[in-house]
Design goal:
Blueprint lengths: L1 H26 L7 E9 L7 H22 L4 E3 L9 E12 L4 H8 L9 E12 L5 E12 L5 H18 L2
Parallel strand pairs: 1-2, 1-3
Antiparallel strand pairs: 3-4, 4-5
Helix pairs in contact: 2-4
Length: 175
Amino acid sequence: MVKRFGSLLVLAAIVAVCCFHGEALAKKRLKDYDTIVVGSVIGKPDAGIPKRYAEDLKDALLRQLQRYNTSYKWAKKVTTAMPSSKAGVVVLDAEILTYVLPSVGRRVGRSFIPGVGGHLGSASVQFTCTFIDGEKGTVVLKQDVNANATSANDTVEYAIERGAEYMAKVVHKNR
């Protein structure tokens, strides 16, 4: 019994060391960069995504990254303009893959049945963000995002804002 407990304890310690070591390596991905540039944001060509969603996502990414940067001071600058010196610059490019317009279930439920119908509508957007080293052009980090919006805020714009906030949290985690 004691032998099993001892070997189980050793196994748990090995797993914990490997997990913490892997997390420490993951956090260093964006640590060497002092400028974050929000680059191009496009919609997948075959998906028929309106251009305004790409513009909304670019604005939301810039706004959320700047908001988190004022609190946590990750970078000297978060901008959309590429600086003349590309050393210490990481470029964030995004591609919107799919989107789902808000369903009308919430609105119909509320209009016909009083007190019922909340949390029935939903909208979503799925996009991929790629962090590219400004000097070498290599991919530093790639993150898929699937953001949903429900209830009274069931718009694609709100889902985009939530997805951008999630990306700011990903940057914070990888600093």
